[in-house]
Amino acid sequence: MSKIKLVYFDFNFWRIDILRLSLAYAGIDYEFERIPRKDWTKFKAKQPFGQLPVMYYKDNVYCHTHSLATFCASKSNLYSSDERKQIIIHQVIDWANEITYRIAHSIREKNPDKSKKLRRVFIEKDFYTWFGYLEDFFKKNSNNSFFIGELSIADITAWRVIRWFLSGNLEQIDIKFIKKFPNLQNFYEKFSLNENFKKLQEFQEIMN
Ligand SMILES: N[C@@H](CCC(=O)N[C@@H](CS)C(=O)NCC(=O)O)C(=O)O
After folding, report:
1. Which helix (H) or strand (E) holds 4?
2. Average pLDDT, the chain
3. Is domain 83-203 annotated with CATH 1.20.1050.10?
4. Which residue's alpha carbon is nearest to atom 6 within ligand 1?
5. Helix, strand, coil percentages for the chain (3-state, nearest 5)
6. Which of 15, 38, 40, 68 to mutate to test the pocket of ligand 1 (most atoms within 8 A of CB)?
7. Rounded to the nearest whole angstrom, what is the distance from the C-alpha of residue 131 to the centroid of ligand 1?
8. CA dist., res. 161 & res. 180, Å (int)
9. pTM (2 decimals)?
10. Counting atoms of ligand 1 from 1, which one is nearest the CA of 66?
């Protein structure tokens, strides 16, 4: 079987971690290359959309997290053949992209005062609102503590993004925020205890 090769920066982030977790969970061997952030200008122009992650497979290169996640999930039996379940999965990945774009302004801003202000605006306008949307979405659609009633890439994605906001590395984000979203808190805590993930190196890297 052709081997999948994933490429990302030299730090962990949900965009790459969900791909790695999905493949590793299914026991699919893959290559992984990390590009040092400091060398990025040398590599950027060579990427099809000037961004990472990218995936090499069967002599082609592919990109965009949502597309790659669907592909890896499909290979890993973490997607679904049921159209209702598929569209639930897609909405969770879109949610992850959306909240990321919204916080990204404050992450990218180099001026510390402006960055702080942008983070405040994100928290006031978007953070609780977008977690509220996911809480309601989970309440409405989930079953058995999974977004589609069985483990899928939707769970891996939501879990990884929640983990990011709970990491304590995002300034001004009070990690007690999750208490306002009891369904997501319960979902997150259950997923974190999943023995099949806990034994994976990919999972341990995220938790440490
Ligand atoms: N549309 C892309 C967005 C990926 C993205 O924003 N990647 C960031 C790192 S998380 C990146 O490559 N930043 C460097 C740059 O844009 O020059 C996706 O869905 O994967």
Report:
1. strand 4-9
2. 97
3. yes
4. 51
5. 60, 10, 25
6. 15
7. 22
8. 16
9. 0.97
10. 19
User: Nearest 5°: phi and psi at 30?
Assistant: -145, 155
- What is the rounded end-to-end Cα distance, in angstroms, of the chain? 32
Residues of the chain within CATH 1.20.1050.10 domain(s) are 83-203
Architecture of the domain spanning 4-75 = 3-Layer(aba) Sandwich (3.40)
- Residues of CATH 3.40.30.10 domain(s) within the chain? 4-75
- Shortest-distance Cα residue to atom 17 of ligand 1: 51
What would the mean pLDDT of 170-180 be, rounded to a whole number? 97
Task: Report which secondary-structure segment, H or E, holds 32.
Answer: strand 30-35
Q: How far is CA 41 from CA 5, 38, 64, 173, in A?
A: 21, 8, 19, 30
Residue whose CA lies nearest to ligand 1 atom number 16: 51
- Tell me the percentage of the chain whose pLDDT exceeds 90: 98
Ligand 1 pocket mutation, candidates 35, 41, 51, criterion most atoms within 8 A of CB: 51
pLDDT at 1: 65
Which residue's structure tokens are 């997501």?
184
Q: Which residues line ligand 1 (CB under 6 A)?
A: 13, 15, 44, 50-53, 64-66
